[in-house]
Amino acid sequence: MRLRIFPREERFFDLFVEDVENVTTAARRLEAMLRTYDDREQAAKELFAMEHHGDELSHNIGRLLNTTFVTPIDREDIHALISGLDDVLDLIEEVGDTFLLYNIAAPTPASIQQAAIIVKQCEALLEAFRALPKFGELEHFWIEVHRLENEGDRIARGAVAELFADEKMKATDLVKWKDVYALLETCVDKCEDVANILERITVKQA
Asked: Cα 177 vs. chain centroid, distance in angstroms?
């Protein structure tokens, strides 16, 4: 049992949950945008607002870190979590924006599937962050995020293979979709990075 000379600042956990809730909301909005593919500009604006809110939350966590003597988890892990969640949210917003910038006529089934995987990963991370103060029973959450990452890789490889198999596809469209799939795959990978940080934190606290 660890003795505490100074009380720990526990507000970090609440701020992290708020941060992941925002990321999850953005992931769901992206999936909904691709499934309906109507009012895309409004969806992109909403994603941009969520990304901006995520930046504010990260700054709030950073300010709290700078004024806190005893943190509930190691400072480098707090920085890593802030950075990891920022990366996920930035990529979600970038995917939505890319569909507009590239003037993509309609999403592919693979892109919708990848967006759905990101939602499931974020939902698993959200539940993990809600349970984080207990530092236990988190293993099944990061295992699920890893499983979803493997599924996302499989979908991404198949989607890219289909691009090159389509002899009628224009070269410009091929480049556009390669970029979109790469962004989605990177976002899936970044979700796994956050899960890896949570695993590291849990091991330290064991």
From this structure: 20
Which residues have a Cβ under 8 Å from the Cβ of 161 and sit 6 or more positions away? Answer: none
Tally of domains within the chain: 1
Cβ contacts of 179 within 8 Å, gap of 6 or more: 98, 102
- Please report whether residue 91 resides in a domain: yes
- Report the first-to-last Cα separation within the chain, whole angstroms: 11
Contacts of 201 (CB under 8 A, 6+ apart): 73, 74, 77, 132, 135
The CATH number of residue 110's host domain is 1.20.58.220
Residues 6+ apart with CB under 8 A from 172: none
Is 120 within the bounds of a domain? yes
Amino acid identity of 91?
L
Q: Which domain holds residue 165?
A: 11-205
Domain for residue 43, yes or no? yes
pTM above 0.85, yes or no: yes
Average pLDDT, the chain: 90
Lowest mean pLDDT among 2-6, 57-61, 72-76, 81-85: 2-6
- Predicted confidence at residue 135, as pLDDT, reads 67
Residue whose C-alpha is closest to residue 158's, from 188, 118, 114: 114
CB 26 within 8 A of CB 91: no
Tens digit of each residue's pLDDT (9 = 90 or more) over 114-139 = 999 999 999 999 999 998 887 667 78
- Residue 54 belongs to some domain of the structure: yes
> Quick one: which H or E segment has residue 111?
helix 109-131
